[in-house]
Every structure is written in C-alpha cells, then in structure tokens.
Amino acid sequence: MFDKIMEAQQKAGEVKTRLDAVTVTGIAEGGKITVTANGNKVVQSVTIDDSLLKDTDKEQLEELLVIAINKAMEQADNVSQSEMAAMTKEMFGGLGGLFQK
User: Fold this and answer.
1) What digits encode the pLDDT tens for the residues 18-29?
2) Coil, strand, or helix at residue 48?
3) CA-CA distance, 81 to 83, in Å (whole number)?
4) What is the number of domains present in the chain?
5) What's the confidence (pLDDT) of residue 101?
6) Is position 97 within any domain?
7) Is residue 92 part of a domain?
C-alpha cells in the first residue's frame, strides 16, 4: 500500500511538471490585452497594446485585465482537470490489484 502512495505522489509531481510546461492564454479587447500563464496558474506575462493605453482609462484597463486573466485561469483549470483526470484513471486502474492482494 505504501508503494501505491509513493507512486501517487510521484505521479502528482509529474503532473505538476507537465502543467508547468503548458502555456495558456487569455485575450481581451480583440487581442489588445494578452495574459499568458502556465497550467499551474502562474502568470508568465501580460501584454498590452500601446493603442489601448492611449484610448482607455485606468478603470477600463483594469476591467479588461481581469477578463484576460480570468480567461487564462479558466484555460489553466481545464488543462489541470484533464491531467488530474488522466492521473486518477491511471491510479485507479492500478489500485484494482491492490485490493486483490
């Protein structure tokens, strides 16, 4: 049983590593704001088009940033859930033998 727990911890570490390598993007205002993050919900960069800075007030810019960040986080959630589901399926497939011992 302890081996299975260690295996689960190892697989969780592997999933985290894979999610670190996944890039997700949230876009707002037709691409004038782009937020890039990884699958572990760590924001990597924020890009704001210069024209948007000239034409938008602070409040609007803040709202657009929130939209772009939320879109990136939603994508990261989706990727993370897919990875975790795959890991869980793999683990439960392996646990079937555990109960037969």
Assistant:
1) 999 999 999 999
2) strand
3) 5
4) 1
5) 44
6) no
7) no
